[in-house]
Design goal:
The chain contains eleven helices and eight strands. With 299 residues, it is α/β, with parallel strands linked by helices. β7 and β8 form a beta hairpin. The radius of gyration is 24 Å and the shape is elongated.
Length: 299
């Protein structure tokens, strides 16, 4: 028996999207590329003409007090008058005011505590939404650049928007495609993987399979499994050497996101939930990459 024994992957292994690598056939990869290319940061950002800004020379205490009621965590900082964003008052950075609403406010001007423009707080308007979500818990606000101009602002709170839901659904679906193909490589037939499930799940799947066979519309047996079934089938494979506890823990977070997307509207309604969403995205990419060619051999 040949064993596909891969190194336990880390989140940092997914520096590039797994669909850009050798995947399960070309069609899923092409579909994922097209979907993510069309779902851009420009679709979810607050446009520049609607931004609430502050001036670099303003006292920080005044800016915080002025914005206590609007709920903004970050404000763009401009070099000129605050009335409008124009050629005469350029955006020169970001200031985070959320923490100051909950504690002491330093006696200084905005310039002292702002984050000047840098690669860390800029993102292209045509960048994939996932490019932002992947690290939005670590860099919670970015200014959106289009051409030579700052076109808007995107923040962690934007993860609730509909285009983000579409991007996340697509990413999770891609993982499920990879998991399905991995199970097929690991087992020669349904009997090989069905026995790894609980008796209740086996009965339900067999009932559905029998029904479809009777109606002469039978399809691949794995299409009757749920996301959690696939997790169990892979985890219980004798050839799974990627860390069953870590896999179960990581996939539980992914399934929580999947269920939230499918059945609720609050999957990222709080900073904590939004941060979990970002972590889930990194885990999806980590395990998509790890399972692309697992197992390497077959019995």
């Amino acid at each position: 028996m040949t064993t596909g024994n891969l190194k336990q992957p880390s989140e940092s292994d997914a520096l590039t999207a797994p669909w850009a690598s050798r995947a399960v056939g070309d069609e899923p990869k092409v579909a994922m590329e097209a979907l993510q290319k069309g779902l851009t940061v420009g679709l979810i950002c607050t446009k520049s003409e609607h931004l609430v800004t502050c001036q670099e020379s303003e006292p920080l205490s005044i800016v915080v007090e002025r914005n206590r009621s609007n709920g903004f965590d970050f404000l763009p900082v401009i070099s000129g008058p605050t009335e409008a964003v124009s050629a005469r008052n350029k955006i020169i950075g970001l200031v985070e005011i959320a923490s100051y609403r909950r504690g002491d406010i330093p006696d200084c001007d905005v310039r002292t505590v702002m984050h000047p423009l840098s690669e860390e707080n800029l993102i292209g308007a045509d960048a994939s939404i996932l490019d932002f979500v992947r690290g939005a818990d670590r860099q919670r606000c970015r200014l959106v650049v289009s051409g030579m101009q700052i076109a808007g602002l995107v923040s962690l709170s934007d993860l609730q928007q509909l285009p983000v839901r579409a991007a996340l659904f697509g990413l999770i679906t891609y993982l499920e495609i990879i998991m399905t193909a991995a199970i097929q490589r690991d087992s020669n037939d349904a009997e090989g993987w069905l026995q790894r499930l609980s008796e209740d799940r086996q009965l339900k799947i067999q009932t559905e399979m029998s029904k479809m066979k009777t109606e002469d519309s039978f399809v691949n047996e794995l299409l009757f499994t749920q996301f959690g079934d696939k997790v169990t089938i892979i985890r219980k494979s004798l050839r799974f050497k990627l860390g069953t506890r870590v896999f179960k823990r990581d996939l539980s977070l992914i399934q929580k996101l999947r269920d939230g997307l499918a059945h609720a509207n609050d999957y990222a309604s709080t900073p904590e939930a939004a941060s979990d969403t970002c972590r889930a995205v990194r885990l999806i990419e980590k395990w998509s990459a790890a399972l692309l060619n697992w197992p390497e051999g077959r019995t």
